[in-house]
Design brief:
alpha/beta, Aminopeptidase, Glucose Oxidase, domain 1, Topoisomerase I, Chain A, domain 4, 4 domains, eight-stranded mixed sheet, 17 strands
């Protein structure tokens, strides 16, 4: 079968991938024969089988269940031929927690069990403490405000609340003396609600758990919660019995499994795949699927190398199965020099989609403080993948799994959001470009219904291909490949700059007499920052400009320099058009145009260059967590990540002005001075 299909994909590329006008599709960044081999070898069914093994374990951070899952991953990583397989451990601020027994009974005439952790592990909220109690049940509405407790005595009782346990606990247990909580809170993502029968993931305060303070919470479905609430509303007196035994240990450690596929020539430019292994059971898509996909990517690559169908990569490819965000940060805190040894991160968080519903592939855009090739690389690979399974035609047989769906392939970019481990790599001070991929199942995520039967083997196979293709291109890219990647960056840049210019022109078009000058200023700085960022994206390619067979970057990138000059010309034209539109709007509004010049305060700030002095290490956590109440978390994060020792306070203000209305130079300077007062930042004066 395999020998007969050797030339199948080139035929498909020549015949099947023609658009309606008969035009040949654009080529992949990878050779067609390598694409065929990746697709032939990748198995979505194998990923699903491994995901099922992991999903059977409750994989809370620092738990015994996580440790067992890590052992399984490490064993399988060794079995597929990865080297340097290790289990790393780091101290953490949260306690280790496992459920030994968790039952909730309603004491009717005949006791009825309404929750059991052995049947639905999510039934016990994370960080609940031991409890052997029998008490009256009191409904407190959401349970998150004082009004919910007015005229209700909950001391020594169990409260029924619709709010999540960690938001109910401070009032119900800590303040009003309730013994515990029964919550029927729902887990909604982007407005998509799970079924009424789904039990959501809940948690209590790890800080209170650490102190040994009493308290527990059980999670039940909204359907069951409504039945209990209706009975209480009719005046019935309900009592519940709790049997709860947990293992709660402090201090504790979070862990991660690391492994490698060694490169042959290029050092200190490693590619690292990440997937978070931790999650309550089942967590099949989130993220047993991503963890299993990494194992399959490793197996596929090692198989092709062993069979002589592919040479070993030039750069080392690493694989990390992590405790989400926490162990990833602590890895860099413990070994800050490692950040300089990484070329790129490929993060997979949910790989299996929804075989009974809609499956879209998602890539999360880079944050605006980062400007690298990452978004354009995954766009190019996904575009090729979409031609293997277009909306208008039957998908290529190589791009579907035998037991999976035959859906079209689509990839959408989501705006940047700190949703997974990509955020660690994209943190200022670490500065590693990241591609973060997902096929989310939003109606199941963080509930008891995130089960293996919903995983789509076709989505799993496609995720393996996307990840492997992206990783292989980066692992082998040299100077000779730059023209191809520059073409992709040019296409992506045209889209990004077009969006920025349209946004700037809309601001001008919506002006009034009162705000037209400020709108022009904001629009101008939006354009300037967009073009400055595009220049950084082009500059990021220099790291890839490695001469064939050496690890020395080429002295000059002739192709890149011509693109930069073209960018300057585009920037001048865009500013000229924006200015013309501003002047036209001024005439329409009967307002005199003003020359756009920096104000005296901006000129003063232009001479002040903030530089972070806090090294990447254990103390970096406080830097990450610190926000300005005036600026809010999003703007505070932007400013911290823009501090690079080169941008002035004025540049920070102009970048903030482009994204946040109402920000002032004083706001930015005050926040930077707060960072200075903590000893994290110094100011140098430009001469």
């Amino acid at each position: 079968m395999r020998r007969g299909g050797r030339h199948l994909l080139p035929i498909l590329l020549m015949v099947g991938l023609l658009d309606r006008a008969g035009a040949v599709s654009r080529p992949s960044l990878l050779p067609p024969e390598l694409v065929e081999q990746l697709l032939t070898e990748a198995s979505g069914e194998r990923v699903r089988e491994v995901a099922a093994v992991l999903a059977a374990l409750p994989r809370y951070p620092a738990s015994q269940g996580f440790d067992r899952a890590a052992e399984i991953v490490a064993e399988r990583a060794r079995a597929v031929g990865l080297t340097d397989v290790r289990l790393l451990s780091f101290p953490t601020d949260v306690p280790a927690w496992d459920v030994r027994r968790g039952e909730l009974w309603l004491l009717d005439a005949e006791p009825v069990k309404i929750a059991d952790a052995s049947e639905i592990p999510l039934s016990v909220a994370q960080y609940s403490r031991d409890a052997q109690v029998e008490a009256e049940l009191i409904s407190v509405g959401a349970g998150m405000s004082e009004a919910d407790y007015r005229d209700r005595d909950v001391r020594g009782k169990i409260v029924l609340a619709s709010g999540p346990p960690h938001e109910v606990e401070p009032l119900a247990i800590a303040q009003h003396g309730a013994l515990g909580i029964i919550s029927d809170a729902r887990s909604e993502f982007f407005g998509i609600a799970p079924s009424e029968d789904a039990v959501a993931w809940g948690r209590l305060s790890p800080e209170r758990a650490r102190t040994g303070a009493a308290g527990f919470a059980f999670m039940i479905s909204p359907a069951r919660g409504r039945i209990l609430r209706d009975r209480l509303a009719r005046g019935e007196r309900l009592r519940a019995r709790v049997h709860l035994q947990v293992n709660l240990r402090w201090p504790a450690h979070v862990k991660m499994v690391v492994a490698a596929l060694p490169g042959t020539r290029i050092r200190d430019q490693d590619i690292v795949f990440t997937a978070h292994l931790d999650h309550p059971a089942p967590g099949a898509n989130d993220n047993a699927s991503g963890s299993a996909a990494l194992l399959e990517i490793a197996r596929v690559l090692q198989t092709l190398i062993r069979q002589g169908k592919m040479a070993p990569p030039l750069r080392t490819i690493r694989f990390w199965w992590v405790t989400e965000i926490e162990s990833t940060y602590r890895y860099f805190f413990a070994q800050p020099e490692e950040a300089r040894r990484l070329l790129a991160n490929i993060n997979i968080d949910q790989a299996g989609g929804d075989r009974h519903g809609r499956t879209d592939f998602i890539a999360i855009r880079q944050p605006i403080w980062m400007g690298t090739f990452a978004d354009d690389l995954i766009r190019a690979i996904a575009r090729f993948a979409s031609e293997l399974a277009p909306v208008s035609r039957t998908p290529s047989p190589l791009f579907v799994a035998p037991t999976g769906t035959r859906d079209p392939f689509t990839l959408h970019f989501w705006p940047y959001a700190p949703l997974s481990d990509h955020l660690v790599f994209e943190t200022g001070g670490i500065d590693v470009p990241a591609v973060s991929l997902a096929t989310p199942s939003l109606r199941y995520i963080h509930t008891s219904e995130d089960a293996v039967e919903h995983l789509d083997p076709t989505a799993l196979k496609r995720m393996v291909f996307l990840g492997a293709a992206c990783g292989l291109f980066l692992a082998n890219v040299t100077a000779r490949d730059l023209p191809k990647l520059l073409a992709e960056v040019r296409e992506g840049g045209a889209e990004r700059l077009g969006e920025a210019e349209a946004r700037a022109l809309r601001w001008i078009a919506e002006s009034t007499r009162e705000d037209i000058h400020m709108r022009f200023k904001r629009a101008y700085h939006l354009l300037q920052y967009a073009y400055e960022r595009e220049g950084r994206i082009l500059a990021s390619l220099a790291k890839l400009a490695v001469a064939e067979g050496t690890s020395d970057p080429t002295a000059a990138l002739k192709h890149e320099s011509s693109f930069v000059w073209h960018l300057f010309a585009l920037q001048e034209a865009a500013v000229r058009l924006l200015t013309e539109q501003y002047e036209r709007m001024c005439r329409m509004l009967d307002v005199t145009p003003r020359e756009l010049e920096p104000e005296a305060e901006e000129m003063r700030l232009y001479r002040l260059i903030p530089k972070r002095t806090l090294p990447l290490g254990p103390g970096f956590r406080a830097w990450l967590d610190f926000d300005s109440p005036r600026l809010g978390p999003k703007l505070s994060t932007l400013i911290k990540n823009l501090i690079d020792g080169e941008r002035s306070l004025a540049h920070l203000y102009w970048a903030a002005l482009a994204e946040f209305e109402g920000v002032t130079p004083t706001d930015i300077e005050a926040f930077v001075n707060e960072l200075r007062a903590k000893g994290w930042v110094m100011l140098e004066e430009r001469r």
